[in-house]
Amino acid sequence: MVDFHTTQGGKVGIADEPIAALRAALRGSLLMPADAGYDVSRTLWNGMVDRRPAAIVRAAGAADVMQAVDFARTHQLLLAVKGGGHNIAGKAACDGGLMIDLSAMKSVRVDPAAKLARVEPGALLSDFDRETQAFGLSTPTGINSTTGMAGLTLGGGFGWQSRKRGLTIDNLNAVDVVLASGEFVQASATKNADLFWAVRGGGGNFGVVTSFEYRLHPLGPEVLAGLVVYPLEQARQVFEGYRNFAAAASDEMTTWMVLRKAPPLPFLPPEVHGKEVVVVAFCWIGEPGRGEELARPLRSFGTPAGAHVGPMPFAAWQTAFDPLLQPGARNYWKSHDFVALTGEVERILCEAITRLPSDECEAFIGQLGGQINRTGVGDTAYPHRDAEFVVNVHTRWRDAADDRKCIDWARALFDALTPHATGGVYVNFMPEDEMQRVAAGAYGPNYTRLAALKAKYDPANLFSQNQNIRPQA
């Protein structure tokens, strides 16, 4: 007998025979707490999350997912789904419930003639980049190679290519989905079009996606990219230069800013290490020679403390921030969308950076706009087609004793920025304690339609371990 938590908040004991039957039906494996591999499977990127499922289905394919969903629905079990496990809210694991671990499903199949890629939900950005860049192809994804393709895509997905080519979901052709009923369906613009609309930004609310088909575009294998690092004392002129540069930039150019303490990067003099800095990061995906000329002003916002700029493999650039985002640390995020970076936003950010609660905390500004905002608000579940910038307050630390001061710092900075923001938030940047922002903040004008589709595809809210869209009554 194994005790499971149910979707109603109670417990149910399931006899050994049904569990043995589930195990026998799987091509993958069923892991119990005493089994080897259980702790590895349940572990997520965010070290704050330490949940212990009663059982884990480590899926090898769509058939295993169907078996797991049927089992969870039949017994009304709390169900969590893990792709890459990178989500800040840590919803990929649940205490006492059933967890579906998709991380072994990593296949990336590229059709270079058709410029398409078929990707399984356990693939990371690094897996995707290795396969697609072998053919000089890519699609817009995120900026950290350890991010999971599934979670990134289901929330929207943006990065260095998005101003030219839109969000990840804007380049999604089709998906395979296991519904709450256990049924396997395909969704695209012509098949189950309402479901296809919902999964493009609606997160894991509507089923378990077992395959994604993306359109690919020529890219690289080299791009012009790099970092220019300025002392925080020059922040005012750096912000002014950045605002002007971003406003005039073509869609092939994307620039982000990071405010933090300088890590010991080899191109920075030792006396800068550990000091507060403003980092301007950029990627140019157009013609290389033209990019060198257009990127030159990024070095003239002030007097840089150091810079590392030049042609490099795109796949390598995608790993540039990996050392700062390794799994295991404690993380808490707060985020806002903006249509403009005003002087007051600049002042609030710079003042907060002088009071960082740990050496790994930061605030970053991601540039959006361009092709992202040429898609209609109602064309996908992701609605934030007016945002020009996203500001993510990223607190990161190691000792649980520092939880309170780090979280309080993030919340205070978030509150100070709130009057200047749009009210919208990118769902993938939301921590676990922001359920109140799901309707108005994450989905806004699209929420009512999403709730109606939730009632159609998951009326019992089996897929509740996410930034949850509740079924419309």
Quick overview:
β7 (108-111) and β8 (116-119) form a beta hairpin. The chain contains 14 helices and 20 strands.
Keywords:
alpha+beta; seven-stranded antiparallel sheet; 20 strands; 24% strand
Protein architecture, described:
26% of the residues lie in helices and 24% in strands. It contains 14 helices and 20 strands. A seven-stranded antiparallel beta sheet has the order 17-14-16-15-19-20-18. A hairpin with a 5-residue loop joins strand 10 (172-178) and strand 11 (184-188). The longest helix is centred in the last third of the chain and has 15 residues, at 403-417. The radius of gyration is 22 Å and the shape is globular. It starts with a strand and ends in a 16-residue tail after the last helix.
* Rg over C-alpha atoms, rounded to the nearest angstrom: 22 Å
Write down the overall mean pLDDT. Answer: 97
The portion of residues forming beta strands comes to 15-25%
Report the principal-axis shape. Answer: globular
Regarding quaternary structure, what we see is single chain
Distance from N terminus to C terminus (CA atoms, Å) equals 35 Å
Number of helices: 14
List the helices and strands and how they pair.
Elements: E1 2-5, E2 11-14, H1 16-25, E3 29-31, H2 38-42, E4 55-58, H3 62-75, E5 79-82, E6 98-101, E7 108-111, E8 116-119, H4 125-133, E9 137-138, H5 149-155, H6 162-165, E10 172-178, E11 184-188, H7 193-199, E12 208-215, E13 217-218, E14 222-231, H8 235-248, E15 253-261, E16 276-284, H9 288-295, E17 306-313, H10 314-317, E18 330-338, H11 343-353, E19 362-367, E20 389-397, H12 403-417, H13 438-443, H14 447-457
Parallel strand pairs: 4-6, 5-6
Antiparallel strand pairs: 1-2, 3-4, 7-8, 8-12, 9-13, 10-11, 10-12, 14-16, 14-17, 15-16, 15-19, 18-20, 19-20
